[in-house]
Design a protein that fits this description.
Helix content: 55-70%
Strand content: under 5%
Number of strands: 0
Shape: globular
Largest sheet: none
Structural class: mainly alpha
Length: 498
């Protein structure tokens, strides 16, 4: 069941109405049943995997809690490490089997081929369980928090199961932290009009990002990248720029829909995006993009590897490792690994060049607070990120060919041909104007967020006539310009496949 489907439009209001009617003490059981129903709408069988991951991490949490009562410190630490290792082995084993087995098998066959050893590649014809990477990381994060004594193990299995499977976030996050989300299962959430209104406005913005921006951008992007060999460098450059906004709006829309849906019911999910394309460096970009995953890798991989505590060389190695793993997390394919490596190496080179940049700023007396300087840094950062998105979107060899064409290194086609570039991309005058206006609205919203201006609060403080004018304009704008309806196959969110 997709957020942008008719089924969800029926499912969500019914769940919310029932949620506020039934007694508080059974609400978590009701939400648990709704969450499993929501997940089983994709494939009922894979709910067993979700239940298995939940049961394993729940049991291991109890074992870790019980180990704290041991008086022998050495035996306690050994037992806790064994339990933690067992938890990771089972959960990552399931993730590997469904997501990485075919990739690992094909890689092994190619490596053996270099040694003149032939081997028939085993292939598993399995459908990747939706959201498996997200709920696996969420449950493993809980286990790590219990292991570190940051939280106490949850004794109520059903509340913990709701924490893992909470339907607004199970498919594409944000990846919840037990320390903030689990206590909310016990909180009383009375109906508050302001809270519900704020959640619905956030969902409305999410639908604008998905139905108006993402779906219209996807038409042009897919049209160009899927036929890159016949495209000019200009068309490929435009497609790469549009894809940067497509993937941002797609993922940010899911996060906004998830946060909005949770807020309607009184739950608070962490912010997942904070104007990432306004970043002044790649390192800052990753503090603003997919915050729940970036902070997960920081807390549960980068810091345990040593972080920046063991010298500059070790820090740089740790950064590369984290981003290689991040690439693999996104998909079982070499181009995801390249994408992760690029983002890691960007940061390492950025740190190496820091003394040079400081010297240049001093020599040329550059005002680092000037808007022009920040603009240039922001554009340069965006360009680096956009290059990496090409590898994220396309296989490795096509990505290289696309970059060669953008750079004008091919001899088959002209870099730019007058007259029909935008039309050939699938952008008619009407769709082009729509995207210009929609991207302008997005930019305005991003600037407000960057300036710490809460548009929801601003809207709710206006007079009733202006408030409802904005509500109706947003709703009818989505209905008129959004992509949906008869003949439309509700498209999967990009990150749902991870």
């Amino acid at each position: 069941m997709l957020f942008n489907s008719l089924e969800f439009m029926i499912f969500f209001p019914i769940v919310c109405l029932a949620y506020y009617v039934i007694p508080h003490k059974v609400r978590y059981l009701f939400l648990l049943a709704c969450s499993y129903f929501f997940y089983m709408c994709w494939n009922p069988t894979y709910a067993l995997l979700l239940l298995t991951s939940t049961a394993v991490t729940y049991g291991c949490g109890l074992l870790l809690g019980a180990a704290e009562g041991m008086t022998d410190e050495k035996k306690k630490n050994v037992r806790k490490k064994i339990v933690l290792a067992l938890t990771f082995l089972i959960n990552l084993g399931i993730l590997f089997f469904f997501k990485y087995f075919n990739f690992a098998a094909s890689t092994l066959v190619r490596v053996l081929g270099f040694a003149n050893i032939t081997m028939e590649q085993p292939v598993l014809d399995l459908v990747l369980p939706v959201g498996i990477s997200f709920y696996t990381f969420q449950s493993l994060g809980y286990t790590m928090d219990v292991y570190r004594n940051d939280i106490k193990p949850e004794k109520n299995f059903f509340k913990y199961a709701l924490f893992v499977s909470f339907f607004p976030q199970i498919v594409s996050g944000p990846i919840g932290r037990a320390k903030s989300l689990l206590p909310q299962m016990d909180e009383k959430h009375p109906f508050r009009f302001e809270q519900v209104r704020g959640g619905l406005l956030l969902m409305l913005y999410g639908y604008f990002q998905k139905l108006v921006l993402t779906e219209n951008l996807a038409m042009a992007v897919n049209n160009v990248f899927d036929t890159y060999a016949q495209r000019t460098g200009f068309q490929l450059l435009m497609a790469s720029l549009l894809y940067a906004f497509q993937i941002y709006c797609d993922f940010a829309s899911y996060s906004n829909l998830a946060r909005g849906a949770a807020q309607v019911m009184g739950f608070r999910l962490m912010e997942n995006f904070n104007v990432p394309y306004f970043s002044q460096s790649v390192a800052e970009f990753w503090r603003r993009w997919h915050i729940s995953l970036s902070s997960w890798f920081r807390d549960y991989l980068y810091i345990p590897l040593g972080g920046n505590r063991k010298g500059k060389l070790r820090k740089h190695i740790n950064i590369i490792i984290v981003f290689l793993v991040s690439g693999l997390w996104h998909g079982a394919s070499g181009h995801f690994v390249v994408w992760g490596f690029l983002n890691g190496i960007y940061q390492v080179i950025g740190e190496w060049m820091r003394p040079v940049k400081k010297w240049l700023v001093k020599v040329f007396r550059v005002n680092e607070d000037a808007f022009s300087h920040k603009l240039l840094r922001g554009l340069f950062t965006f360009a680096l990120i956009d290059v990496s998105w090409i590898f994220f979107r396309n296989p490795f060899i096509p990505s290289l060919k696309i970059l060669f064409r953008i750079a004008g290194l091919n001899t088959d086609t002209y870099w730019f041909t007058w007259g029909n570039n935008l039309e050939a991309m699938g952008l008619t005058a009407q769709s082009r104007n729509l995207l210009v206006v929609a991207l302008g609205v997005l930019l305005l919203a991003e600037i407000c967020q960057y300036k710490k201006i809460c548009l929801t609060e601003w809207i709710t403080k206006q007079g009733i006539w202006l408030r409802w004018l904005i509500y109706f304009a947003a709703i009818f704008g989505i209905l008129i310009f959004g992509v949906y309806g008869p003949g439309y196959d509700a498209s999967q969110f990009i990150y749902a496949q991870f």
